[in-house]
Amino acid sequence: MNNSSQVRVRFAPSPTGHLHVGNARTALFNWLFARQAGGVMVLRIEDTDVERSEARFEGQLLDDLKWMGLDWDEGPDVGGPYGPYRQSDRLAMYHEQAERLLREGNAYLCFCSQEELERDRAEKLANQLPPVYSGNCRALDPAEAQQRRASGEAAAIRLRIPEHPIRFHDIVHGAVEFSNEVVSDPIILRSTGIPVYNYVVVVDDALMKITHVIRGDDHLSNTPKQVALYEALGWPVPQFAHLSTILGSDRERLSKRHGATSIANFREMGVLPEALMNYLALLGWAPSGGTREIFTPEELKKEFSLQRVTPSPAVFDMEKLYWLNRHYIKQSPPERIEKLAEPYFVRAGLLPAKPDERIRKWFEKIVALLVPSVDRLEQLPERAALIFQYDAAAAANSPENADVWAAPKTNEVLEEFAQLAGSDAAPLTPERFKTIMNEVKTMTGAKGKELFHPVRVALTGSHSGPEFDKLIPILEEGSLLELPRHVMSVRQRLDRLLTKSKADPSSD
């Protein structure tokens, strides 16, 4: 499993907040690359930011990744040969390698105070020069510097950047070169003993045998410092692939102001994991041959290629995600969607917390009726308002229904329908409803919209909606169930509407 030629990638989130779209796509691309190559996926927790890192965020990160369908071969929860897999447990390794760099002359002690560094930076900016470190401590005698540190003087450790351009090849961006003057000598270990990000990530990646570093292009400017560290430590430099930025619809960097951006948000909205995986895969990656857009996880693993990742920014299109989600909702087994939809109805006070078998069977019909009209599962309770929240006053007085009420045959149609529907106590089945409507048509001469719209408005409050033959049984059966919110039967709705004074909607 750990031979030197095997592909090894890592996803290394910080547990300082929720998993967002950009990081989730990075995790996905690492996973697809590893799985296609038969390689190893490593999960590493970068928790050296002690003040902001929280265990609850780590738990949420792992849960969100698993929900998306991702797994890993090594990590804090599964172990592995190159652990520990939390940076907070690896501090001794960072100190050990920093001292080695000092001994070998590839790093030096820096005694500059924060005030001195800030003053020097401000002067450079005022003179329109790059705000890089002046190299003030670079030429200090190492023995003298060690004595000063031993006597208690605070000192950071800086990497000695080589005096030549730093070059590397990026799979997405091609050949990249940075002048050593703009990199300057970075601190790797602060005077407090806390290591910095650009240093620890190199130690971790090298000791964990990572062969490919796939991450966001906001890290591109960090890479020359990291390449210099690999070379100073005598370790092989991994291959890099920096993924493009994700933008909102306004072509600004995706953020909370664009709406949902965290995986937790999408889960709460009722976006299916396979829809989100499919959509994230298309952000900055193009499949070969044609314009195909729907891929199962297995198909993505076969098709994915870093060579087809584009450096151009990707625009997050919420409507495209919803389109994919509709596809996957319709493709899913009904029992799965019913199970996922149930909590939304419980929270809305429409179903009891523990529905009995009779209610569940009835609920199956509601989901089947409404699912074709939703983008995400959270919309289902709102779509179900026509079942649970009949309002005769609203039906009678809504401006949207004015044309229906003004039609010449509306009153006659409703009176005949009410008389026939209430003529006996027999259940109003779809078949009986159809027979009644045919009789109303014969007796009134109404047909098409002038026949069906009045009845639909009377029963649902709207002149558009689901098919009557599916809706009628739901209303009739629901009116007999013990539910948190009573469902009115067809007769109850007609009685309520026909006794309602249109001039006084408050009389309800």
Please give the CATH class of the domain at 384-507: Mainly Alpha
Poorly predicted regions:
501-508
Find the structural class using helix and strand composition: mainly alpha
Could you tell me the mean pLDDT?
91
Architecture per CATH nomenclature, i.e. the level-2 architecture of the domain at 384-507: Orthogonal Bundle
Shape designation: elongated
Which percent bin holds the helix content? 40-55%
**What is the radius of gyration?**
33 Å
Total DSSP E strands: 11
Q: Give the biggest beta sheet.
A: 3 strands, antiparallel
Largest sheet, order of strands side by side? 3-4-7
The N- and C-terminal alpha carbons lie at a distance of 72 Å
As for the CATH topology of the domain at 384-507, it is: Arc Repressor Mutant, subunit A
Q: What is the percentage of strand-forming residues? A: 5-15%
Number of helices: 23
